[in-house]
Amino acid sequence: GSPRRLLLVSNSTLHGGGYLGHCQHHIKNFLGEKVKRVLFVPYALHDRDAYARTAREKFESLGYGLDSIHESCDPVEAVRKSEAIFIGGGNTFRLLKALYDNSLIQEIRKRVLEDGIPYMGSSAGTNVATVSINTTNDMPIVYPPSLQALGLVPFNINPHYLDPDVKSTHMGETREERIRQYHEEPNTPPVLGLREGAMLLVEGDKATLQGVTGARLFLRGKKPTEHEPGTDFSFLLIDSNLQNL
């Protein structure tokens, strides 16, 4: 079995709460007492210093030290020495480009999939943990060399998944329609739509939906299905799409 441990969160802030407030007990349970310091990756936002301050304040309140990778003179070495990695939200294209620019894709994969260090992602950080960023909600403000991401799981996630508003007069495409268009392309993997407040915990070959809201699962050629917290999604980890990475 795989030693991977992932906590993939849909959003950093839930209405009515502070930064990572809705999932802080999940974070403590996930990181445990062995982890002392977390390596933070703030590449998804332009103001990395301010972002690191926000993250450091939160993690220190939970009892963990935090080092931001943008403050390191050698990002690859910082990943190699890290006890745990947290990649925050922002623009997914900007984030993935920076991961490629700093030669971090293979390094993070190795640390998580082979060495088993905990990986936490939120929003864009959850997007890049998957097969590709094809199902992000973000605008392509920069151009990464590839849309292929870290591939820590063999499927895609759509964070901040939104259900259609039945009262809305907006005639544009719904999130569900956009995911269906993605699945019109051949060999596209499953997409898990994580609503605000939802997160996926992956421990080895077991995946469990956690949080306060549900998720919507999209499989190519099938009707989407609705799932509540506690759902076992381990079957999504057994997939042939890994061979394409």
Automatic annotation (TrEMBL):
The keyword Hydrolase applies. GO terms for molecular function: dipeptidase activity; serine-type peptidase activity. It comes from the Eukaryota. GO terms for cellular component: cytoplasm. It catalyses: Dipeptidase E catalyzes the hydrolysis of dipeptides Asp-|-Xaa. It does not act on peptides with N-terminal Glu, Asn or Gln, nor does it cleave isoaspartyl peptides. Its EC number is 3.4.13.21. It is found in: Cytoplasm. Hydrolyzes dipeptides containing N-terminal aspartate residues. Belongs to the peptidase S51 family. PANTHER family: ALPHA-ASPARTYL DIPEPTIDASE (PTHR20842:SF0), PROTEASE S51 ALPHA-ASPARTYL DIPEPTIDASE (PTHR20842). This is dipeptidase E.
